[in-house]
Amino acid sequence: MTPPPATVTRFAPSPTGNLHVGNIRTALHNSLWAEKHGGRFLLRIDDTDAARSEERFVDAIRADLAWLGLSPDAEVRQSERFALYQARFDALVATGRIYPAYESAQELDLKRKIQLGRGLPPVYDRAALALSDADRARLAADGVAPHWRFRLDHASPIEWDDRVRGPQRFDPATMSDPVVRRADGSWLYMLPSAIDDVEMGVTDVVRGEDHVSNTALQLQMFEAMGAAPPRFAHAALLTGAEGKLSKRLGSLGVDHFREQGIEPQAVVALLARLGTSDPVEPFATRAPLVEGFDFARFGRAPARFDEGELAQLSARIVHQLPFDRVADRLPAGMGAAEWDAVRPNLTRVAEAADWWQVIEGPIEAPAAADDRDFLIQAADEAGRINWIADPWHVLTGALKQATGRKGKPLFLPLRRALTGLDHGPDMAQLLPLIGRERAVARLRRAAEA
Ligand code: GLU
């Protein structure tokens, strides 16, 4: 028995704009599914539309995927594959599965209106199939160039078992023969995509449910090309936090997340689970998400994308990030000990700089008139104690004994004098980083303020 082909997925954005959160989710699903099956994840740039495709968006797509940690195993561009499409097109014209049609947009529009007026579905009537060779010759002589339609086979229903949606069934007689090529020779999305899926050996087409009816049409294209169709997974769409299909989602992308200080891994952790029956968890690495990823876990209801949830998840991921994953984003000189001390207090990595400032100084401490004597005592004590092991507990222990203070009156004046703030990282971790010399100076200065 031959083993089943290794999994191949593809993410196929059109470079006509920036990736938004819905595209990012599709890219991620493709990447996770391929990795889970030890397969390949391909990037296909759908740039057949020369007028709307822009190189800067191709660059942005690559950069966004890199930021998210999604690395395609290969990249292909549709604009470099026109010869391939032409060959397949010619073959389908030769077998009569693609035919020329001559109606203008206005004529088609009128036909649709008439059908709708009669209460009929607006399906293309295939008038072009009834043309004789002589008719076509006359149209050509009049300078009318045809566009091209794929002739659907009406004989049997189109069926597939969708990995998310389960069994699907479409009646091809209720669908118009799709236009696959315009009169100027340019390609529409539908056929080149199916050709590429065959040529690239794609085993799993993973995309949003807005493509479900395209799948029905493309399944017949695979059949017409004599190719085994891939499996399909159509995830339900995302909605905004307000529960509706939101305009805002269409503009939320990597640039926005980066500006907000969101960790890429938070985007990954959220979008890998959103819409599934599994809880969203702050996984700081990809492995558990790959392992648990399964289209069978996805529901059919739209999933709600909430920026607040993303921000919270990101903070929880920041709390777990080891120093080597953030080192290049920290102020010069900040080391692992400093990172570990301040990490639990951050919602964003960039805030580490604020705590680095607190450690390094100078700091601005609030006036502490009522605690003057206590702070002088603390400064003396800090100069004296064994600083090696755990200076904060040694210092506060000694001060407690000497002054009888405990709780807030003991700790708060010290924290304020040493950091300038009422709240912050665990002082037991922070004080050794501030160091004896600076600590003594800060306590004295606070006492004199
Ligand atoms: N370029 C198409 C899109 O962005 C690709 C759809 C597909 O995955 O086949 O919608």
Outline the structure in words.
- It catalyses: tRNA(Glu) + L-glutamate + ATP = L-glutamyl-tRNA(Glu) + AMP + diphosphate.
- Keywords: Aminoacyl-tRNA synthetase, ATP-binding, Cytoplasm, Ligase, Nucleotide-binding, Protein biosynthesis.
- Monomer.
- Residues 372-446 form the Aminoacyl-tRNA synthetase class I anticodon-binding domain.
- The termini are far apart.
- Among the domains are: 8-76 and 194-237, Rossmann fold, CATH 3.40.50.620; 84-181, Glutamyl-tRNA Synthetase, domain 3 (Alpha-Beta Complex); 361-448, Arc Repressor Mutant, subunit A.
- The protein is mostly helical.
- The model has no long low-confidence stretch (mean pLDDT 96).
- Helix content is 45%, strand content 11%.
- It is built from 19 helices and twelve strands.
Topology:
Layout: E1 8-11, H1 21-36, E2 40-45, H2 55-67, E3 74-77, H3 82-94, E4 98-101, H4 105-117, H5 133-141, E5 147-150, E6 158-162, E7 166-170, E8 179-181, H6 190-199, E9 204-208, H7 212-224, E10 231-235, E11 238-239, H8 254-259, H9 264-273, H10 287-292, E12 303-304, H11 307-318, H12 323-326, H13 336-342, H14 352-360, H15 372-384, H16 391-403, H17 407-419, H18 427-434, H19 436-448
Parallel strand pairs: 1-2, 2-3, 9-10, 11-12
Antiparallel strand pairs: 4-5, 5-8, 6-7
